[in-house]
Amino acid sequence: MADFHQNGNITTLHNLRTRSMEEMEHELAVFAQSRKISLILPCLFSELEREAMPNILSELSKVGYLHRIIIGLDAADDAQYRHAKTFFKGLNQNHIVIWNDSPRMLALGARLEAMGLAPSEKGKGKNVWASLGYLIGCADSSVMAIHDCDILTYKKDMLARLVYPVANPTFPYQVAKGYYPRIGNDKLNGRVTRLLVSPLLIALKRVVGDRDYIDYLRSFRYPLSGEFAMRTSILPDLRIPSDWGLEIGVLSEAWRNLAPKAVCQVDISDAYDHKHQELSPDEAHAGLNRMSTDICKAIFRKLAADGTVFTANVFRTLKATYYRCALDLLESYYNDAKMNGLTIDRHTEERSIELFAENIMRAGQVFLENPHETPFIPTWNRVHSADPSFLTDMTAAAKADEAEYQ
């Protein structure tokens, strides 16, 4: 996306194709001498058997400025954990595979449960939270980044561009969010961002009025990207959502804890494609059906915390306004795709819009019935306050698993 537009809310760092990647990586290597950089890869065991991961490992093995890679492994038994350790041996950096389902980790989870601090559900949020805990326990990194593990078009350049804004000590940024065009197989992808988040934010502004938080979210070109980097000093007080509102939740935490000038978005790729979730219209707790509801709830909760009053009538108006906005945007996306030789199935897209409109009402109803619901995992500061030895015990358990399961 080679332009230089700034909207004034957060900084957008573009790729103007005027600098070599070799020069940027050399500068990162210099930064890393005094500001160590770590990478977190939250993954399911099943992702090790898919097309994306071998290429991701091949690309990462060429990166010389990383201090550590932390792989959070979910949904694996002991044999699969051993296989994962072998799988990741190709990495040239210091790395560890954290087996989140190991007996040691489950025992630690029971300790959290007894204190009322356990994550409410498994998933990417819990995986990221546990990996952040391990990183905090190591206490030796200044910068961290997170990548999804299903990126089919992964290049090591993505990581360099993602971490550079927070690794450069002369920049003010504490959080960097990656953005990119979602295209693949000659299609325009990114349905949830295009057909839910963008029109929902437009509709919210029309229905509830101007809100700085809405303008903040609208500033992000791809708010649902799973690629972001942070300075580690903010991690202990970061609240991680346990549901599918993880990406919106992290942006909301940046809004809560930081000034806008400390947050940026950065162009990390010209083409990005990954595994696509099914719409799952008949399963409220699966696929994009579940994801869209959780995203709506995350946005509603944050607006309510900032003083917005929601009622059943507000949600009915919001649904109608969203539906019209989404259809108008669909026309724009269709023409954009057509001009670039890409395809959009308008029937499928309108079905998605209809489902998302219903889920706005569903999320609103859930919010009204339980406005105090807080599906956040406790911050690591709180865990440390309740059990000062927990982080040390968790890092020791991960290392013990690594030593035992050869």
SSE topology sketch:
Layout (H helix, E strand, L loop, with lengths): L10 E3 L7 H12 L4 E8 L7 H9 L5 E9 L3 H10 L7 E5 L3 H13 L8 H15 L4 E4 L9 H12 L7 E5 L3 E2 L2 E2 L2 H18 L3 H7 L9 E4 L8 E2 L4 H12 L5 E5 L19 H19 L6 H28 L6 H24 L6 E2 L2 H7 L3 H15 L2
Parallel strand pairs: 1-11, 2-3, 2-5, 3-4, 6-11
Antiparallel strand pairs: 5-9, 6-9, 7-8, 10-12
Report on this structure.
Strand 7 and strand 8 form a beta hairpin. The chain is globular and about 55 Å long. The longest helix is centred in the last third of the chain and has 28 residues, at 312-339. 50% of the residues lie in helices and 13% in strands. The protein is of the alpha/beta class.
Characteristics:
transferase activity, 14 helices, two-stranded antiparallel ribbon, alpha/beta, Glycosyl transferase, transferase, 13% strand
Classify the secondary structure makeup into a structural class. Answer: alpha/beta
User: In terms of per-residue confidence, which ranges show pLDDT below 50 for 5 or more consecutive residues?
Assistant: none
- Residue-averaged pLDDT: 93
Tally of contiguous helical segments: 14
Task: Enumerate the strands of the largest sheet in spatial order, edge to edge or round the barrel.
Answer: 1-11-6-9-5-2-3-4
Distance between the termini: 45 Å
Report the sheet with the most strands, covering strand number, pairing sense and barrel closure.
8 strands, mixed
Strand content: 5-15%
